[in-house]
Amino acid sequence: DIQMTQSPSSLSASVGDRVTITCRASQTIISYLNWYQQKPGKAPKLLIFGASNLQSGVPSRFSGSGSGTDFTLTISSLQPEDFATYYCQQSNRTPLTFGPGTTVDIK
Amino acid sequence: QVQLQESGPGLVKPSETLSLTCTVSGGSVNTDTYYWNWIRQTPGKGLEWIGYVYYSGSTKYNPSLKSRVTISLDTSTNQFSLSLTSVTAADTAVYFCARDGGGGHGSGSFYYWGQGALVTVSS
User: Which listed residue, A96, B24, B61, B92, has the most CB atoms within 10 A of its CB?
Assistant: First the structure.
């Protein structure tokens, strides 16, 4: 299985901050990397697919980059509605696997 | 707009079979474009992909659950289902159904999700 790791596991930030979350795969996944946002009691929501493609309807303050094994999700200016947990997920090989998540909370 | 909704018992006894159904609206499961998935979430193991079914009935499962899982499709009711046998407390989770994004980089990414169904395994 492809193992996914994320760092940090949690972070505290303020509205307006630039936030960066890193995801690493245990082997190359080319650019088959997706990012999700999850709020308590809700299903995950797809933000980015294919490492850098913004899902329709997702604000442009979210962006993704990377290829191979190392990927980044950036929120350019954190908004109140962005406080949530973020997961990466690889779709290069089955079994499809997720990272453990990064929780973004209010400083 | 595609919508998915899980349904099924919220409590299952150990050693019995967990059965959930996902009802799809706003789109047909009988399409060669998408894969229909089950995913579960626990506090301990996080998000775990269980498997998918394709419109043809072909399936792919997570090897960690493969011996106990069956996912099937019913085009007449526009639903797909999950069956997990011989459950234990470790199978207690929120179970989500989800549709992927189609071809290219959309394949294997989860575009649409159900709201999730909490299933507790307990006697």
Answer: A96
Q: Which residue of B has its CA nearest to A100?
A: B46
Mutating which of B105, B107, B111, B115 best tests the A interface, going by the most A Cβ atoms within 10 A? B105
Spatial separation of the C-alpha atoms in residues B28 and B76, rounded to whole Å? 10
Strands A10-13 and A19-25, by their bridges, are unpaired
Read off the pLDDT of residues A3-60 as tens digits, 9 standing for 90 and up. Answer: 999 999 999 999 999 999 999 999 999 999 999 999 999 999 999 999 999 999 999 9
CA distances from A35 to B18, B22, B112, B123 (A): 29, 23, 14, 37
CB contact under 8 A, B63 and A95: yes
> Strand, helix or coil at A82?
helix
User: Is A43 an 8 Å CB contact of chain B?
Assistant: yes
B44: left (phi over 0), alpha (psi -120 to 50) or beta: alpha
Q: CB of B117 within 8 A of CB of B21?
A: no
